[in-house]
């Protein structure tokens, strides 16, 4: 798989071969929250966030990294959750402690070219499953798995960092080299949806502390190996707590 990019909290994730000369013509970011009523700084409200990144058209392009920015009224209680190691996540997560799993999701990938880069003449689709764990030190480990027609079991590491302006946090994700090729093929992941939100010992993983102008703001930027980048934004309705 020639270069993944997460564009979410998630997620977000786009792949393609390094021989690409350009990124996709369009990047779309969709966000959905379980609760629309916001909390306050004094009394934060629990939240579950679903982020979907779509890249079109599907084709030969390579993504090297991605950033997903989250509204400044979103708070993450990463230190209140137990953490799982990257090695245990890659092994499937069965040894991860209770209180460390924080998300699930799905993705869709397509293959249109042979390993030598020539046109396959058809499209082979593959469905992937996603599971996310708190990694400690503001890390999010996302396990990407598939069995047919491509066998995939690798971890995307996202790092939660401070942001500015209308955004409070951003998730930075670099693409691991282990995902550059899968069984000799270089698929393009055209859809990546990750739902993040859990509660451990009464503490939510994500909380909201306010609502400005009736909207929560989100943004995503995917950076491609040819130096190109594509960005998208999304706004979700909210009401003051």
Structure overview:
The protein has 241 residues and is an all-beta fold. The protein has one domain. It is built from 1 helix and 16 strands. The strands form 3 sheets. An 11-stranded antiparallel sheet has the order 1-3-11-6-7-8-9-10-4-15-16. The chain is globular. The N and C termini lie far apart (44 Å).
State the strand order across the main sheet.
1-3-11-6-7-8-9-10-4-15-16
Instruction: For the record, give the distance between the C-alpha atoms at the N and C termini, rounded to a whole number.
Output: 44 Å
Output the number of helix runs.
1
What Rg do the Cα atoms give?
Answer: 18 Å
Counting structural domains, the number is: 1
Order of helices and strands: EEEEEHEEEEEEEEEEE
Q: What's the layout of helices and strands?
A:
Elements: E1 26-33, E2 45-47, E3 49-56, E4 63-71, E5 74-76, H1 86-90, E6 101-113, E7 119-136, E8 139-146, E9 152-162, E10 167-174, E11 188-196, E12 199-200, E13 203-204, E14 206-208, E15 215-224, E16 229-237
Antiparallel strand pairs: 1-3, 2-14, 3-11, 4-10, 4-15, 5-14, 6-7, 6-11, 7-8, 8-9, 9-10, 12-13, 15-16
Task: Write a brief structural summary.
By secondary structure, this protein is mainly beta. The chain has one domain (26-237).
Any key phrases for this structure?
about 240 residues, mainly beta, eleven-stranded antiparallel beta sheet, three-stranded antiparallel beta sheet, globular
């Amino acid at each position: 798989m020639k270069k993944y990019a997460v564009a979410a909290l998630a997620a977000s994730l786009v792949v393609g071969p390094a021989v690409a000369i350009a990124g996709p013509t369009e990047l779309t970011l969709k966000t959905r929250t379980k609760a629309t009523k916001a909390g306050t700084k004094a009394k934060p409200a629990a939240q579950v966030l679903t982020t979907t990144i779509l890249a079109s058209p599907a084709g030969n392009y390579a993504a090297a990294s991605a950033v997903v920015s989250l509204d400044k009224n979103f708070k993450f209680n990463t230190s209140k959750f137990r953490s799982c190691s990257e090695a245990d996540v890659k092994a499937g997560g069965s040894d991860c402690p209770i209180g460390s799993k924080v998300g699930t999701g799905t993705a869709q990938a397509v293959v249109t070219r042979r390993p030598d880069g020539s046109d396959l003449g058809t499209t082979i689709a593959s469905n992937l499953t996603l599971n996310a764990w708190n990694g400690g030190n503001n890390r999010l480990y996302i396990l990407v798995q598939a069995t047919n027609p491509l066998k995939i079991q690798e971890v995307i590491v996202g790092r939660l960092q401070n942001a500015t302006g209308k955004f409070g946090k951003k998730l930075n994700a670099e693409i691991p080299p282990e995902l550059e090729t899968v069984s000799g093929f270089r698929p393009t992941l055209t859809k990546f949806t990750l739902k993040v939100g859990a509660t451990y010992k009464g503490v939510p993983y994500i909380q909201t502390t306010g609502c400005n102008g009736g909207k929560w703001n989100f943004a995503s930027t995917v950076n491609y190996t040819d130096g190109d980048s594509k960005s998208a934004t999304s706004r979700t309705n909210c009401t003051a707590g």
